[in-house]
Amino acid sequence: MTYHKITIVGNLGRDPEMRYLPSGQAVTSFSVATNRTYTASNGEKVKETVWFRVSAWGRQAETCNQYLKQGKQVLVEGRMTADKETGNPRVWTGQDGAPRASYEVSADRVVFLGGREEGAPPAHDGGASPDFAEEDEIPF
């Protein structure tokens, strides 16, 4: 048996979008930006942003759609979903002609981070997860 797991912490690039499959199952999609800042060998500060497309399913999808908003910080645990044709991240050409890639994650668990806002669910410490366990240039 092969298994992999990815954990990302970042901020939502836009409000989530929820839809229902013909089976009636809810799926919510949102993008998460992760940032890294480092100093290059020439002394210049470099900011690197990597985008992930996340899909949450079922009750977790409904909760994510209800409480997550653009800019909110989240922790997502899940598995990478490869392009079915290539086995790699989804690749496309942006409007500016530059190549782009999409790293896609199917969420097993989503934890809302940051301060509690009015109407938001309670924060979780990363222990037992509640039952809501799935851009800068991304064109979707």
Head-to-tail CA distance between termini: 33 Å
What's the average pLDDT?
83
Q: Which CATH architecture would you pick? A: Beta Barrel
CATH superfamily: Nucleic acid-binding proteins
What can you tell me about this protein's structure?
This protein is mainly beta and 140 residues long. The protein has a single domain, classed as Nucleic acid-binding proteins (OB fold (Dihydrolipoamide Acetyltransferase, E2P), Beta Barrel). Helices cover 7% and strands 46% of the residues. The protein is built from 1 helix and 7 strands, in the order E-E-E-E-H-E-E-E. It has a 5-stranded mixed barrel with strand order 1-3-4-7-5. A hairpin with a 5-residue loop joins strand 2 and strand 3. The protein is globular. The C terminus is likely disordered.
Topology:
Layout: E1 6-12, E2 17-20, E3 26-39, E4 45-57, H1 58-67, E5 73-81, E6 90-93, E7 99-112
Parallel strand pairs: 4-7
Antiparallel strand pairs: 1-3, 1-5, 2-3, 3-4, 5-7, 6-7
